[in-house]
Every structure is written in structure tokens, then in C-alpha cells.
């Protein structure tokens, strides 16, 4: 009986899939030999939660589930009206602090002028004191010679005492002026500190506003929208969940006799249950240091064989980028490892990736 032409491609596809399934079934049951070992596992990818730093209301979400995003791409916004009001308040405080610095600088200038005037006054009073002392000395000489009266001598002595007091007063005024300069400069430093604190507050608020824009920390695919626009969430509340499909691994377990000989970078071939016709290359990226599935008391050789070590194999990011649309997580499969580095991979385990 002659088959219709339209059924021939379907028949070929069924034969190919059946052959692949049969080969995979045989391989799983019998394996390629003693120089290879396998372990069951599932495909895993790095997941990233995009969360808000502070509590607030979700303003909008710009991406949908299943959408691919780039690193740094804006994904969502949080409402920032209160932060904007805080920023305006902080800016007003900063301007007040700047004005206070200018006022304090002016006070320093005034106090320095007062100090200059006090210094000049002290010099004048010291000059008057010197003149009074000279006159007193002359009066004392004239009085001893009888050329001047005692009254004149007393007047000159009074002038010296008055000039001495004036000098002391001028010195006190100069010291007060200098102290006022120090106080004014302290006020300047305090006002400048307030300006710095206001600027730091502004910077902090601006950072908070920037953090309200939620961006993708790395390239990936949106897996879930956890929150919706309009919802109020707490600090650290999750908005989106991303999965990095270029960082994909499979975790599986091997006996301790195999784990001891495994090295990072060892070649691994993966066969997934969902696509048994492909053999995906990978490399060992992690070998556990502690055994699992360990019995409470290890007494016999058969029990010691139950010691298993977790191994993680990573698929090359370059290969994953070529097939991002086909990458799926959670898919079960089998990882094959060569125990003999010189052994060749059998045909059924040779690398075969989608074109």
C-alpha cells in the first residue's frame, strides 16, 4: 500500500524520535561502560529577586512575565512624593545654612576690625602713658630744684596713673576683640558643618529617590511579577523575580570513590529527559567537601558505599546565549562523567546541541 506523501515526514519524525528514545532508554539502563559514571539531577539557574529598599507603594511595572531584560534596564518605579518633599525641605535647610555661613564670615570681619581698632587704641594709650611718665620725671626734677610746685607734681602723678589705667583698659578691649574673633570663627565652622550635614542629607535623599527606580542587576528573564502597581509593600518587599539563563547548572550526586578523583573543570555531558536527542556539554564547577546520604553509623563496606557527594556542572554561557529561548529550568536529566581522561566519549554521548 502506498502511503500519502503528506504522511511521509510525520513517519520519519516518529521513527527518529522513537530511535532517540530507544537509545536513551538503553543508555540509561546499561550505560556506556565502567569508565563512565552518571548521576541524576535537575537544571537550575540563578534567580534574582528585584526588591524595594524602603517601604512604599508600587507606582508602575514596565515588564511582563517571560520578557527578557538587559542589565541596568528599568523594571519598575516606586512612588517618591514624600521623598521629593523631604528633598525640598533639606534644600531649604541647606540654603539657610549657607546664609548662616555668610553671616558668620561677616561677623569675623567685624570682630577683626574691632581688634584692629583696639590695637590702635592700645598704642595711643601707651603713647599717652610714656608722655605722662616723661612729664612726671621732669616734674620730680623741677620740684627738687624748687622750680615747680608740689601741686604740679601731684597732677603729673595723677596723669601717669590715669594713663596706666587707660592702657590696661585698652589691653582688655584688645583681648576681648581677639576672643570675639575666635568665637566668630567658631560660628563659621559650626555653620559650615551645618552646610555639610545638609548636603549629606540631600545626597541621602537623592540616593533614596534613585533607589526607588528598580533596575535589573543583570541580564535575565522575568519569571514572576510578585507585586502589582498600586500595592504597598514593606522594605525589602519583592516586586519581580528574574532568572539568569546564562548561569545554568545541574546538581547531581556521585559516590565518594568518584568524587575523590573529580577536579574542577572536568568535562560533563548532560542529557535532559525533555530533549533526549541532544547531548549538552558542561564542566564541573563545584564538588562538595562533605558527604551526604551518610548513615548515622558507618560499620560495613556496603554502608560506606552510600556516601554521596554533590557535584555541580555548569553549561557554558556562550552556548546558553545562543539558545536563550529554549533554556528551561527544573528539567530533570542525567549527567555523565568520564572516569578515564583518555577514554573517548561513545557515539551516544557525543556532544549534540540544537542548531
Rounded mean pLDDT is 85
Q: How large, in whole angstroms, is the Cα Rg?
A: 45 Å
Strand content: 25-35%
| Contiguous runs where pLDDT drops below 50 for at least 5 residues | 13-30
Shape, please?
elongated
Number of helices: 6
Strand order of the largest sheet: 1-8-11-10-9-12
Largest sheet: 6 strands, antiparallel, barrel
Please count the beta strands (DSSP E, at least 2 residues each). 12
Helix content: 40-55%
First-residue to last-residue Cα separation: 36 Å
Structural class: alpha+beta
* Element string (H = helix, E = strand): HEEEEHHEEEEHEEHEHE
Describe the structure.
The chain is of the alpha+beta class. It is 46% helix and 26% strand. It has helices at residues 8-30, 81-144, 150-211, 256-259, 301-304, 317-322, and strands at residues 36-51, 56-61, 68-69, 74-78, 213-215, 220-225, 232-233, 238-255, 267-272, 275-287, 308-315, 332-338. Strands 1-8-11-10-9-12 form a six-stranded antiparallel barrel. A four-stranded antiparallel β-sheet has the order 5-4-2-7. β9 and β10 (275-287) form a beta hairpin. α2 (81-144) packs antiparallel against α3 (150-211). 17% of the residues are buried.
Amino acid at each position: 500500500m502506498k502511503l500519502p506523501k503528506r504522511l511521509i515526514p510525520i513517519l520519519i519524525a516518529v521513527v527518529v524520535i522513537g530511535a532517540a528514545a530507544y537509545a536513551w532508554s538503553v543508555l540509561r539502563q546499561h550505560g556506556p561502560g565502567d569508565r563512565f559514571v552518571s548521576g541524576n539531577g535537575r537544571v537550575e539557574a540563578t534567580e534574582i529577586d528585584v526588591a524595594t529598599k524602603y517601604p512604599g507603594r508600587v507606582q508602575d511595572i514596565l515588564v511582563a512575565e517571560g520578557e527578557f531584560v538587559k542589565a541596568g534596564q528599568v523594571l519598575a518605579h516606586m512612588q517618591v512624593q514624600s521623598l521629593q518633599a523631604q528633598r525640598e525641605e533639606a534644600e531649604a535647610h541647606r540654603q539657610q545654612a549657607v546664609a548662616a555661613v555668610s553671616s558668620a564670615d561677616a561677623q569675623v570681619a567685624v570682630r577683626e576690625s574691632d581688634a584692629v581698632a583696639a590695637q590702635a587704641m592700645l598704642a595711643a594709650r601707651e603713647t599717652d602713658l610714656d608722655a605722662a611718665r616723661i612729664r612726671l620725671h621732669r616734674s620730680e626734677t623741677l620740684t627738687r630744684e624748687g622750680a615747680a610746685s608740689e601741686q604740679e607734681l601731684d597732677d603729673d602723678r595723677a596723669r601717669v596713673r590715669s594713663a596706666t589705667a587707660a592702657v590696661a583698659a585698652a589691653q582688655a578691649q584688645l583681648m576681648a576683640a581677639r576672643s570675639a574673633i575666635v568665637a566668630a570663627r567658631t560660628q563659621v565652622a559650626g555653620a559650615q558643618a551645618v552646610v555639610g550635614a545638609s548636603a549629606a542629607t540631600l545626597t541621602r535623599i537623592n540616593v533614596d529617590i534613585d533607589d526607588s527606580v528598580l533596575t535589573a542587576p543583570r541580564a535575565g528573564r522575568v519569571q514572576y511579577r510578585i507585586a502589582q502597581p498600586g500595592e504597598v509593600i514593606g522594605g525589602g518587599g519583592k516586586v519581580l523575580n528574574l532568572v539568569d539563563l546564562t548561569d545554568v547548572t545541574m546538581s547531581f550526586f556521585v559516590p565518594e570513590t568518584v568524587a575523590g578523583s573529580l577536579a574542577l573543570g572536568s568535562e560533563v555531558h548532560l542529557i535532559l529527559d525533555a530533549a533526549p536527542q541532544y547531548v549538552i556539554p558542561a564542566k564541573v564547577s563545584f564538588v562538595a567537601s562533605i558527604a551526604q546520604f551518610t548513615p548515622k553509623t558507618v560499620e560495613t563496606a556496603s554502608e560506606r558505599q552510600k556516601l554521596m557527594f554533590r557535584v555541580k556542572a555548569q553549561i557554558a554561557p556562550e552556548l546558553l546565549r545562543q539558545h536563550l529561548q529554549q533554556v528551561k529550568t527544573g528539567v530533570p536529566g542525567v549527567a555523565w562523567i568520564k572516569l578515564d581522561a583518555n577514554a573517548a566519549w561513545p557515539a551516544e554521548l557525543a556532544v549534540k546541541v540544537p542548531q
